[in-house]
Write a structure and sequence with these properties.
The chain is of the alpha/beta class and 349 residues long. The protein has a single domain, classed as Rossmann fold (3-Layer(aba) Sandwich), CATH 3.40.50. Helices cover 48% and strands 11% of the residues. The chain has 14 helices and seven strands. The radius of gyration is 20 Å and the shape is globular. It starts with 12 loop residues before the first helix and ends in a 7-residue tail after the last helix. The mean pLDDT is 97. It is an enzyme of class 2 (transferase). This is Nicotinate-nucleotide--dimethylbenzimidazole phosphoribosyltransferase. Belongs to the CobT family. It comes from Thiothrix eikelboomii. Pfam families: DBI_PRT.
């Protein structure tokens, strides 16, 4: 497990400086392209190149089930996890459609759904168990299981790197996982369940109130975890959240930029940041989720979303929707003329 705290790659300061200098010479007023300039400059430093690119993209969707569903925290039955994984593989889910349109590589990783599917194209089977235990009654995972789930994420990042991906997107599927993510936010950011607990799959007011009570009880049961992020992940997280955590850490160690999706993936990033704060350099946030509490969490983490479209689907879909913005940022940086090239007068002073 020593790899969890291994150093992240270091952004290249020379290429950061070159990118800033180029942006200052492009035919536009200074900072006129706002966040698009920041994206291109950051990517140049992360990729150590003059012409950053996010054309080659790996999307890995991690799927698992959650024992906490037994406490009535979801509006959908647990069988939906497996059914949606099948839908991903058949091309009918939002992320399937988006990945195809973006020509991004898509894989689905079974990290622990209750009933495994047969081997098939697009499915990676690397299971840590048949769903987690009920975290209200016991630890969600054993130490061995959390290690297996983290390794599943490690392997996904390694595959992305070996395929020469220029950007990594992680997604998730797991009925009950907003409960696990909310516990992690509350425990590691000292936030209140009453302000962080949302509708998830579509709970009504009474359902949210019950879910809030369950989350409060989970926090009380595992209070001995203190501020130990790995302990909280083990006691109250999910296999897919652990896999995302491992994927983000390994991607940053390999020098692979990361585009976060929404509520669940940001919770995994939170755990990863607690283990390795330098991960922050490698993270881009696609959007602010409509799931209650996400705005508080990303503010606490200092993350700047690219979009706010009232999304709360998960699956990596928000990240896929934001990807064209990153691509356009690179195109503008790489292909716009400088004042000299276009024979346009620059700023007077």
């Amino acid at each position: 497990m020593n790899w969890l705290v291994a150093s992240c790659a270091t952004p290249n300061q020379q290429f950061l400086a070159l990118a800033r200098a180029r942006q200052a010479q492009l035919t536009k007023p200074p900072q006129a392209l706002g966040t698009l300039e920041t994206i291109a400059i950051r990517l140049a430093g992360l990729q150590a190149c003059e012409q950053p690119s996010v054309e080659r993209v790996q999307i890995s969707i991690f799927a698992s089930d959650h024992g906490i569903v037994a406490e009535g925290v979801s509006a959908f039955p647990q069988a939906v996890t497996q059914q949606m994984v099948a839908n991903f593989l058949q091309g009918g889910a939002a992320i399937s459609v988006l990945a195809k349109s973006l020509q991004a590589s898509l894989e689905i990783v079974d990290v622990g759904i209750l009933e495994p599917l047969s081997e098939q194209a697009g499915l990676v089977i690397q299971r840590a168990g048949a769903g987690t235990a009920n975290s209200l009654q016991t630890a969600a995972m054993t130490c061995e299981q959390v290690q297996l789930a983290l390794q599943a994420g490690y392997a996904a990042a390694e595959r992305a790197y070996s395929h020469q991906a220029e950007l990594f997107i992680g997604g998730e599927m797991g009925i009950g996982n907003t409960t696990a993510a909310t516990v992690l936010y509350c425990a590691l950011l000292n936030l209140s369940p009453s302000t962080m607990t949302g509708a998830g799959t579509g709970l009504d007011a009474a359902g949210i109130a019950h879910k809030t009570q369950v989350i409060t009880q989970i926090l009380q049961r595992h209070a001995a975890c203190g501020q130990d992020a790995l302990a909280w992940l083990t006691c109250a997280g999910g296999f897919e959240i652990a896999a995302l955590t491992g994927a983000y850490l390994r991607a940053a160690q390999l020098g692979l930029p990361i585009l976060l999706d929404g509520f669940i993936t940001t919770a995994a990033a939170l755990v990863a940041l607690k283990l390795q704060p330098a991960l922050q350099d490698w993270l881009f946030l696609s959007h602010t989720s409509a799931e209650r509490g996400h705005q508080s969490a990303i503010t606490a983490l200092g993350l700047q979303p690219l979009l706010d479209l009232n999304l709360r689907l998960g699956e990596g879909s928000g990240a896929a929707i934001a990807l064209p913005i990153m691509r356009q940022a690179c195109l503008l940086h790489n292909q716009m003329a400088t004042f000299a090239e276009a024979a346009v007068a620059g700023k007077l002073r």
